[in-house]
Amino acid sequence: MEEHQDEFGGVAACARQFEATTREAAALITGMSDAQLNWRPAPGSWSVGQCLMHLATGSDAVLPAIDRAIEKGRAKGWPVPVSPVRFGWMARLMVTSMEPPPRRPMKTWPMFEPPTEVLRRDDVIRSLTAARDRLLERTRQAETVNYRKAIVVSPVSWMFRIPLGGYLAFLAAHDRRHLYQARQVTAAPGFGASQPG
């Protein structure tokens, strides 16, 4: 993948993060029991398994919006942007707001809520790996269009309109945020003990 640079490191940097997400998630839960995978540090908080499944199901939910941006970029025939690329304030705000450690808690939109049923380690890794493969395919496609002009319209609200490159950087930061969250669960007092409710 070519190194087209922007203020977030470029689309190639996003691809490296998506690849790292699968590796880091697998390393985190290798040897983890299903009880540990599903353990929550407090009522209403997420387990390690839920953090990782949120990454899988969340990115799949936005693929249609990403596909529409790529298709429009191709249809318009806009040339690939010349480095360095800068994005607007909304893209910068969305990316920086996701970077760990979290500055404040955020409520997840209902369509991105992780599953509540008991999760199995192999199923979680399989789901996350497949989801990241799909996202990586879109990231490769993004390299061939003007990811500064092609706009992703968020599925949660048409008001959130972010350039494709900025949206991929947002998803990469989102991966880092929830990998951090999952690691924090494993470091919580009593990790893997009787479920607190």
Describe the 3D structure:
With 197 residues, the protein is mainly alpha-helical. The chain has a single domain (11-186), classed as Four Helix Bundle (Hemerythrin (Met), subunit A), CATH 1.20.120. The protein has six helices and two strands. Helix 1 (11-29) packs antiparallel against helix 5, helix 3 packs antiparallel against helix 6 and helix 4 (89-98) runs parallel beside helix 6.
Which percent range describes the beta-strand content?
Answer: under 5%
Number of strand segments: 2
CATH superfamily: dinb family like domain
Instruction: Tell me, rounded to a whole number, the average pLDDT.
Output: 91
Q: Sheet bearing the most strands, described? A: 2 strands, antiparallel
| CATH architectural label | Up-down Bundle
CATH topology: Four Helix Bundle (Hemerythrin (Met), subunit A)
Radius of gyration: 17 Å
* The first-level CATH class name: Mainly Alpha
Helix-and-strand structural type? mainly alpha
Total number of domains = 1
Helical fraction = 40-55%
Quick one: overall form? elongated
